């Protein structure tokens, strides 16, 4: 049987997702962190890799929890038959939490009104609500402000007595600005966890570390880590070398097929605004990915692409559906496979290369792959 990993098998516009890589990455990270619990973060369609498939692969690697931003994302996992514990932490202000509670989704609570709404919903239904407090320790984003901690913990302790509410966790999210900034946040977090315990709560999960801190800051691991990026085999810039040493493998290969190829003379200008002009006779190859598929227009003239046996830069502007590469005198034909990014060890450009070429971070590169790009799965858990 043919191996879909083989480039000759590439579809016209596809993201090949190696689920074995995700399983193996989770195993590696679990071993590294040694924490009792491991939350695999599969929000935003599993960072573009497919939430359900990623969740299954991560659970197979030893994750015992899943993390998402939106309750809808948690319900999608439930609908697919995934019954592992899930925590969701970013809510519509009008959210009633009824569905989340009946689907046994643990609710990340960042405001007092959310806590009250959860308690109200819990008394309406037969299922006890699980709450995890998300504490703001410096990021100033989502998260309960310090001024509300005491009130929230005391209220929750009261709800634990009278309503069907259980506080299962306390967590925070770090800025990764500097190591010292993160240490300051963790000091504050420790205070928050202590205050929760003083109020009579007994959170079973205490978590702060996402990929960056999990990789570089053992103090941030507590009894649980909450990892997204690294399970997909990517790492924050400063940790890329370490990720490679650990054996993390990028799970996504973005690839396609040349849609058009033409031999052109010197002085031929390319794509909108003619920002690129050939210096000599050369071959132009058309790649069927554009900003409609998540390719940043900012990568115009810069994004690297493997085509015709080597890596070439985008020639001229990225358009909505397509861009051009100048492959020189290398033979190229319509239908030849191209790889935008994948595993650097296989000679392909990486998501980090694309992040640099697009003035962004690798999180965004994989997450925004979308639109018309088909996902194709390989690995033990792939069912196609
Ligand atoms: C997205 C997110 C994570 C995962 O972060 P990575 O850096 O991708 O590991 C963890 N926690 C929270 C609260 C998040 O929003």
Question: How would you describe this protein?
Answer:
Helix 1 crosses helix 3. The chain has helices at 19-33, 43-47, 51-60, 71-79, 98-102, 112-124, 146-162, 179-198, 211-216, 240-246, 351-357, 362-367; strands spanning 13-18, 37-41, 65-68, 86-88, 105-109, 129-135, 165-172, 205-207, 224-227, 252-257, 260-264, 269-270, 276-277, 282-287, 304-307, 310-315, 323-328, 337-341, 374-378. The strands form three sheets. A nine-stranded mixed sheet has the order 11-14-17-16-15-18-10-1-19. The chain has an eight-stranded parallel sheet with strand order 8-7-6-5-4-3-2-9. A two-stranded antiparallel sheet has the order 12-13. The mean pLDDT is 96. The chain is elongated and about 80 Å long. The longest helix is centred in the middle third of the chain and has 20 residues, at 179-198. The chain is α/β, with parallel strands linked by helices and 384 residues long. The protein folds into two domains: 4-11 and 251-378, Beta Barrel (Lyase, Ornithine Decarboxylase, Chain A, domain 1), CATH 2.40.37; 64-230, Alanine racemase (TIM Barrel). It contains twelve helices and 19 strands. Bound molecules: pyridoxal-5'-phosphate. Residues 41, 43, 89, 173, 210-211, 226-229, 363 line the site of pyridoxal-5'-phosphate (PLP).
């Amino acid at each position: 049987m043919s191996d879909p990993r083989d480039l000759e098998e590439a579809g016209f516009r596809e993201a090949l997702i190696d689920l074995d890589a995700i399983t193996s990455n989770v195993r590696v990270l679990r071993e590294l962190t040694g924490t009792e619990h491991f939350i695999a973060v599969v929000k935003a369609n599993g960072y573009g890799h497919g939430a359900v498939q990623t969740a299954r692969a991560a659970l197979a690697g030893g994750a015992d929890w899943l993390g998402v931003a939106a309750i809808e994302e948690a319900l999608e996992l439930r609908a697919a038959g995934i019954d592992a514990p899930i925590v969701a932490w970013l809510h519509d202000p009008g959210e009633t939490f009824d569905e989340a509670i009946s689907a046994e989704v643990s609710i990340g609570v960042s405001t007092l009104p959310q806590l009250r709404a959860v308690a109200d919903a819990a008394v309406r239904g037969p299922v006890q609500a699980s709450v995890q407090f998300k504490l703001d320790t410096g990021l100033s984003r989502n998260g309960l402000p310090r001024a509300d901690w005491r009130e929230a913990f005391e209220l929750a302790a009261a709800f634990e007595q009278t309503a069907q509410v259980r506080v299962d966790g306390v967590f925070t999210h770090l800025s990764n600005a500097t190591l010292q900034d993160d240490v300051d946040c963790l000091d504050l977090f420790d205070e928050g966890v202590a205050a929760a315990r003083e109020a009579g709560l007994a959170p079973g999960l205490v978590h702060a570390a996402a990929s960056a801190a999990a990789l570089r800051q053992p103090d941030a691991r507590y009894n649980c880590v909450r990892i997204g990026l690294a399970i997909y085999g990517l790492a924050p810039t400063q940790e890329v070398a370490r990720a490679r040493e650990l054996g993390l493998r990028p799970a996504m290969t973005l690839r396609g097929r040349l849609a058009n190829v033409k031999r052109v003379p010197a002085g031929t200008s390319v794509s909108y605004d003619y920002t690129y002009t050939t210096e000599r006779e050369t071959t132009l190859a058309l790649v069927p990915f554009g900003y409609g598929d998540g390719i940043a227009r900012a990568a115009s003239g810069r994004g690297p692409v493997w085509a015709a046996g080597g890596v070439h830069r985008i020639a001229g502007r990225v358009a909505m559906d397509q861009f051009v590469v100048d492959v020189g005198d290398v033979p190229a034909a319509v239908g030849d496979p191209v790889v935008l990014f994948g595993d650097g060890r296989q000679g392909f450009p990486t998501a980090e290369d694309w992040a640099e070429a697009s003035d962004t971070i690798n999180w965004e590169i994989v997450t925004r792959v979308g639109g018309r790009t088909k996902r194709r799965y390989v690995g033990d858990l792939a069912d196609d």
